[in-house]
Amino acid sequence: MKKIGIIICARYQDCGGGKCFRALKERHGGFSRYSADEAVEIIGYSNCGGCPGGNVEYVPAEFSKNGCDVVHLATGLLVGYPPCPNIRRFKAFIESHHGLPVVVGTHPIPRKYLETHRKLTFWDEADLKAFVIPLMAEQRDVLESYD
Ligand code: SF4
Fold it and tell me: Any residues with Cβ below 6 Å from ligand 1, and which?
């Protein structure tokens, strides 16, 4: 059983989580690392609390109380305009302070975001390509289905 906590960007705090939950069920994007026959459970779902992300200091502790094995930073942190400037800091803090591994990404990059980012330099400027590439591995029609 893999117990997963998800932290989303507060810019999307009203998001119902549909893309993340679908991606987990279908093992797409950041969840493709888990095999289809590996049991998974979402043990927490929250947002960063708004820039600069104060909730990241506390919410992983709540995840840990529910037996969290891994924290996923939602794809929205990467695809926002601009992407979150604190992704690497969040990952480093959660891993060192809370002792929880962090995966950057949940659902695949939606096609419409991918096309816009291809005209921009945000991912290169912030050296985020290593996080982005695994989230665009699915076929174009799958990326489009996450629009
Ligand atoms: S950009 Fe980063 S710090 Fe700001 S609201 Fe989004 S996740 Fe939080």
Answer: 9-11, 48, 50-53, 77, 84, 86
